[in-house]
Every structure is written in structure tokens, then in C-alpha cells.
Write a structure and sequence with these properties.
Shape: elongated
Structural class: mainly beta
Strand content: over 45%
Largest sheet: 5 strands, antiparallel
Oligomer: single chain
Number of strands: 7
Radius of gyration: 13 Å
Length: 81
């Protein structure tokens, strides 16, 4: 019921967003966000037994006036409960 995420720090990133989908090539929605100093998360997620979930991460940079620049997504990783 826990998922451990870990990634490498991206130079000067303001933070990271983790996205989730129930299909590898489906629509991904925001799952969790972090701040710039965080490069791992241990998240409680009570997934349904026998179901597979897919996750991607991207970095972002905060610009002035609330605008953001986003990196490309990582390739997906799957978790089956």
C-alpha cells in the first residue's frame, strides 16, 4: 500500500510533479507534487488488488509572475498491487 518514488535531481528545478494513469498510454493526471530539494517520496496509496497503475515524473521551473517551464516526462513505470 506504499509506493516509493526516487529520481535524480534536475539542475535548478523548482520542483517535480508525479502523474498517474490506469493505462500506460492513457491520460495521466497529477498524483503528487514536491519542492526542489525532494528527490524521493514514500507515498501511501491503497491501490486495488490486481490492478496496475502507471507513473511519470517531470521537473518544473518557476518563472516570474507565476509562469512555469516544464521538462519532458520520464518514461512510465508501473506498479501492480
Amino acid at each position: 500500500d506504499r509506493i516509493i518514488f526516487s529520481w535524480s535531481k534536475v539542475n535548478q528545478a523548482t520542483g517535480y510533479d508525479i502523474f498517474m494513469s490506469t493505462s500506460a498510454y492513457g491520460t495521466y493526471t497529477t498524483f503528487q507534487g514536491t519542492t526542489d530539494n525532494v528527490t524521493s517520496l514514500n507515498v501511501y496509496y491503497p491501490g486495488e488488488s490486481g490492478h496496475t497503475y502507471y507513473f511519470k515524473i517531470r521537473a518544473y521551473w518557476s518563472e516570474s509572475y507565476g509562469t512555469y517551464i516544464f521538462s519532458d516526462f520520464t518514461t512510465y513505470k508501473s506498479v501492480t498491487f
